[in-house]
Amino acid sequence: METATAIAALQASYTFLKDVAGFTLNERDRQKFAALQIDLTDKIIQAQANIIEVQNAITSKGVLLRALQERISDMERDDRECGRYQLAKLGLVGDFFAYKLRPASELPERADEPEHFLCQPCFDAGKKSVLRVSKYTAFCLLCKASVQTDFRPALPVNRSRGIDRDRW
Ligand SMILES: [Zn+2]
């Protein structure tokens, strides 16, 4: 009987130790699992942050790309517009230069525009200002430059009123 009691006690002890060991293993595994879960959660959060950062970079690159495409289009348009004109001396007095519209045969588009001159300083600054050219002067409406382009004849003298300025 003592032997059976001793065996039963040993079996109970074995079961207890096995349960304790199982609990310890389970607890260790649970803690490892929890640690892994926390680590995995941190990695997922970091990956989401990285994805958002990449998406923001892609968005800003897209905005930059569109702005650059528009800038290139503007530069190509400006280049085509510049190609329509050539620098030419205007008038007979001094050295006044302006951009003259090229002959219609040299224009790939809008060849039906009438002959005209553009103010050189304004055009070089990116502004298109057609000069108002009269018989003796040229005038820019933008920069207000006014130059004499041709020699004026001697003023006719009106004997009753002096110089007749109405004929100018
Ligand atoms: Zn001007």
Explain how this protein is built.
Helices cover 52% and strands 15% of the residues. The termini are far apart. The strands form three sheets. The protein has a three-stranded antiparallel beta sheet. It has two helices and eight strands. It has two domains: 83 residues; 84 residues, no CATH class. It is rod-shaped and about 155 Å long. It has 168 residues and is α+β, with helices and mostly antiparallel strands. The structure holds zinc ion (ZN).
Structural class by secondary-structure content? alpha+beta
Tally of discrete structural domains: 2
Oligomer description? single chain
Order of adjacent strands in the largest pleated sheet: 1-2-3
Please state the average pLDDT score.
Answer: 87
Total DSSP helices = 2
In short, what is this structure?
This protein is an alpha+beta fold and 168 residues long. It contains 2 helices and 8 strands; from the N terminus they run αβββαβββββ. It has 2 domains: 83 residues; 84 residues, no CATH class.
